[in-house]
Specification:
6-stranded parallel sheet, about 20% strand, pyruvate-formate lyase- activating enzyme, OB fold (Dihydrolipoamide Acetyltransferase, E2P), alpha/beta, 3 domains, Rossmann fold
Length: about 425
């Protein structure tokens, strides 16, 4: 059986897809080079926001077309959207043959074996993960599943359940496997990294996990993505400040900046505690890069709230900001509130946040001008210019941040080079490799 794969959504979902594909390959599947060559197409859906839901539905419909135009015999849908709306999707999408929510996934292989689509060859299992991306030196390690937070705008707990930490020993083994497969950077991901271990009485927490990963592998860079401020402890910060293999980088979502909006969103932080945390982090970790996430247009957001958010971002000078416009998610507390911010106004506010952050990012990057930095090479910068490469400094996360363009020569992907920053742009850097 040849398997086609469509993986949508966040990096955590990509990790899920890689585990699923590894299991299917272990039972005789081979990953197809293109969807029109696949006997079975697996679609891992996303249900986070409306745009992601639409993309997932379109992907399932598109996969179904290959049953007419290609060799496809079955379409399998999994993931967040299926977990949330599986019954509705079954009646609306006849193109899809099998739907598997998270609790149903153990039945995926038996179902495909019973249908004659898959061999029963468990002994051929290749490992924990089957890599799907184009940069094997950059990998993601999901350390927990689910979420205990009750943010009013988010349906993740309804789709993925409450927080469950993965065993430390299992995570170290998986990181070792990723290293053997070529990983030079491992990004730790979860709904909230800071919750790691809280569900296991007396169990290891995030700093202990990082130490185990550092001791069990030689991976040069570990990066922490998405840590609520309460989980950023002195022990974690001390480790980050003193261990060069832990990137001086934190993704700390705040979502808003006024007392009333943070309370309405059911966020645990408040403006003064966020200010204090940012001040402490920048004092404790030299050259720290701080990323955050904000949400505009939540029910009840006024012009005063919006301008307070802009002023807050101007004051705190985050290096990176991911911004989103609110969309109602069925079953959340926010859905019970009147969606009283017009869509057009949401987009205007979103544009203002993004424009402000563009200027802040450009200003923050200027401090790197003339500095010598270490760059992890991701690949050629342009197909028609083999003499140039693109990579990232330790302050630039894969996929979500800017990049560093290297002139004159292109070292192989996955290598580290020393380079001098010769130009700073709005989000990117230009650097000359050093001899």
């Amino acid at each position: 059986m040849k398997l086609g794969v469509i993986s949508l959504g966040c990096d955590k979902a990509t990790v899920d897809t890689e585990h699923l594909v590894a299991g299917l390959v272990g039972h005789g599947a081979r990953v197809a080079a293109a969807l029109d060559e696949a006997d079975v197409i697996l679609v891992n859906t996303c249900g986070f926001i409306d745009a992601a839901k639409r993309e997932s539905i379109e992907a399932m419909v598109e996969a179904g077309r290959y049953k007419k135009s290609g060799r496809c015999r079955a379409v399998v849908a999994v993931g967040c959207l299926v977990a949330r709306y599986g019954e509705e999707l079954k009646s609306e999408l006849p193109e899809v043959d099998y739907f598997f929510g998270f609790k149903d996934l153990p039945g995926l292989v038996p179902r495909l074996v019973a249908a004659g689509l898959l061999e029963d060859a468990a002994a051929a299992h290749p490992g924990m993960r089957h890599y799907l991306g184009s940069t094997p030196h950059v990998r993601y390690l999901k350390i927990s599943e689910g979420c205990d937070h009750t943010c009013a705008f988010c349906a993740i707990p309804l789709m993925r359940g409450l927080h469950r930490s993965r065993p430390l020993e299992e995570l170290v083994r998986e990181a070792q496997e990723l290293e053997r497969a070529g990983a030079r950077e491992i990004n730790l991901v979860a709904q909230d990294l800071g919750h790691y271990g809280r569900d296991v009485p007396g169990g290891p927490r995030l700093p202990e996990l990082l130490r185990a990963l550092l001791g069990g592998t030689g991976v040069p860079w570990f990066r922490c993505l998405y840590v609520y401020s309460a989980g950023i402890t002195p022990e974690l910060v001390e480790l980050m400040a003193g261990e060069r293999r832990v990137a001086p980088y934190l993704d700390m979502p705040i979502q808003h900046a006024t007392e009333r909006m943070l309370a309405a969103m059911r966020r645990p932080e408040r403006p003064d505690t966020i200010r204090a945390k940012v001040r402490w982090l920048r004092e404790a970790v030299p050259d720290l890069a701080l990323r955050t996430t904000v949400l505009v247009g939540f029910p009840g957001e006024t012009e005063d709230d919006h301008h307070a958010l802009l002023e807050f971002l101007e004051e705190l000078q985050f290096d990176r900001v991911g911004a989103f416009a609110y969309s109602e998610q069925e079953g959340t507390r926010g859905a019970a509130l009147p969606d009283d911010v017009p869509d057009g106004l949401k987009q205007e506010r979103l544009a203002e946040v993004l424009e402000l952050q563009r200027a802040i990012s450009a200003e923050r990057l200027q401090r790197l001008a003339g500095r010598d930095v270490e760059v992890l090479v991701d690949g050629p910068a342009h197909a028609d210019d083999p003499g140039a490469a693109v990579g990232r400094t330790v302050w630039q996360a894969d996929d979500v941040d800017g990049c560093t363009y290297l002139a004159r020569r292109a070292p192989p992907a996955g290598s580290f080079v020393r380079a001098r920053v010769v130009e700073t742009l709005d989000y990117d850097l230009v650097a000359e490799p050093l001899a």
